[in-house]
Every structure is written in structure tokens, then in C-alpha cells.
Amino acid sequence: MIMADETAYQEQFRYTRILLRQERIQTRVREMGAELSRRFRGEKPLLITLLKGGFIFLADLCRAMTIPHELDFMLVRSYEGTTTTGTVQIIMDLKTNIEGRHVVLVEDIVDTGLTLEYIRDHLALRKPASLMVCCLLDKKEAREVDVPLEMVGFTVENEYLVGYGLDYNQLYRNLPFVAAIDPDQA
Ligand code: 5GP
Question: Could you state, in order of their start, the residue ranges of all structural domains in the chain?
Fold first, then answer.
């Protein structure tokens, strides 16, 4: 992880407060990487993330892992609005055959859980040897479906978060920390 001067962002971005500072994220991501390395020693797991939000977490997490592993990506779009049926459109699918593989689904944030539930079921159909979810941020209070999260970085409040890969209208992803914004003022 590249450490940056937090004050340098204040002028250009409108966030209300920093929730998770770089050092805290870095410490936790290192712990998670070490735990995954222990769990999958000798197994060459496949880490999958959903673009775009998960790319920074994945980049740090994979470098915190000390065992050989592969990476793959999916691009999905969640249908929003009128009916929250949890229908997810897969815009770009995996390039890897996951049958018989140990799969770690790396998620930036789990909110209602609808996206994750869909993707989890979708991946399970392809018969991986094991499937676990490793998410950085868990917005527990907002959960609408009970989807298992095997590894969680931080449990957070139900507010709109940006930074460390998370966007607001495609911006803010590059903040090296996680901050809350007021969407009316951002
Ligand atoms: P869910 O299906 O769990 O409701 O939504 C998951 C997706 O919604 C996340 O992968 C993320 O893209 C988006 N999301 C949920 N909460 C937030 C948030 O606080 N900030 C941002 N930037 N995206 C969020």
C-alpha cells in the first residue's frame, strides 16, 4: 500500500469525515492476507473480485499474501430502483474455470447483500472445491438477505462511504482512506 499525505486530499474532495485511516486499513489487510495464507497453504487459491470497487482492496490483499495464488475479475451491474430482486447482470465473466478450485470472493463492501448472494450462488453452480467471501467492509445494519461472510475487515455504519476503491459517481476511488460523504454536498 502506498501511504499518502491525507491533508493533500482535503481541498479537492468533499468528504465529511475519515472513517478508516490508511494505517488501520493497512494493518487489517495484512492480518487478512496472513490468515488467507495460513488457510490455503499448498492450495493455490483463486481470488476473484468484482470490478470496479474491489480493485484496490484486492491489490493490497494479494500483496499481503505470502502463498502462490491466481487472480480473476468479474464486472457486474446491479439493477437498482423499483424492484430490488437482487438481479445482477454479468457484464464480464471469469476467464478461469473454477471447478475444483479454492475460490475466495474478494468484496469491497456488502450492503443489502443482494449482489453477493447472486454472485455466490452463480459461482457455487460451477462446483469450486470451496468458496469463501472475504470482504473489507460490512454494512451489517443494511442487510436484506442473510449471506455468509467468512472474513470481514471492518463492520461499518449504514452511511455512504467512498475511497479505497469505493466511488461516488465514479470519483473518490483513489482516496487512500475510507471516508463518509454527504451525497447532497459531494
Ligand atoms: P449490495 O448488493 O450488498 O446492496 O451492494 C453491494 C454493492 O453496492 C457494493 O459492491 C458497492 O458497489 C455498492 N455499495 C454499497 N454501499 C456502498 C457505499 O457505502 N459506498 C459505495 N461507494 N458503494 C456502495
Answer: 18-76+86-167
